[in-house]
Amino acid sequence: MTEPHVETALAPYLRGDLPADERRHVERHLADCESCHAAAEDFRLIRERLATTAPPVAEPHWGRYRAELRARLAGSARRRRAWWLRPVPVAMAATAMAAIVLTFTVAQRGGLNGDVTSDDAVLATRLDMIDKQPIVERLDLLEDLDVIRDLDRLASPRES
Q1: Which of 28, 53, 121, 154 keeps 20 to 30 A from 16, CA to CA?
Q2: Do residues 6 and 25 touch, judged by C-beta distance below 8 A?
Q3: Where are the chain's structural domains?
Q4: Mutual orientation of helices 7-15 and 34-53 as an angle, nearest 10°?
């Protein structure tokens, strides 16, 4: 026999899903081909046994389902509300927010006391200079000590 076998069309044929022309083609092939006819009979037996052994599908009880769903939703809502009532997460969040605000405030002002860097602040606390801040503020004049020392030399060439 030169005609191709119809294995892929057997299941739709047995279900009755094939159009009329394809159905006639499969029936002609099954009449001529013993192996395909045996396969079709096997499929028919399997379908019949499955139809008789399949458990009936129980109709869902929609009222019970809705009640269970409401209970689950209420339980998850309680869990969601309960986390923010605990004091530890609230305190941690408030502390983190305060640190962020403080960091941005200090950064906008250009550091501590204007142009003082954090290294200068650490050094000042070690040297107890914060207690003597008015004196420390005048130390900017001491940076020009080299100029003050050289004033005598600078004045002498002018006098000549």
Answers
A1: 53
A2: yes
A3: 7-53, 83-112, 122-160
A4: 40
Sign of CA dihedral 150, 151, 152, 158: positive
3-state secondary structure of 138: helix
Residue 127 tokens read as 């040297």
As given in the structure block, the two tokens for residue 35 are: 């192996």
How many Å is the Cα radius of gyration of the chain? 47
Sequence-distant (≥ 6) Cβ neighbours of residue 7 within 8 angstroms: 36, 39
57 within 8 A of 51, measured Cβ to Cβ: no
Q: What is the DSSP letter of 95?
A: H
pTM above the 0.85 mark? Answer: no
Q: End-to-end CA distance of the chain, in Å?
A: 132
pLDDT by residue (tens digit) across 72-103? 888 876 666 555 566 777 778 888 999 998 88
45 and 65 Cβ atoms separated by less than 8 Å: no
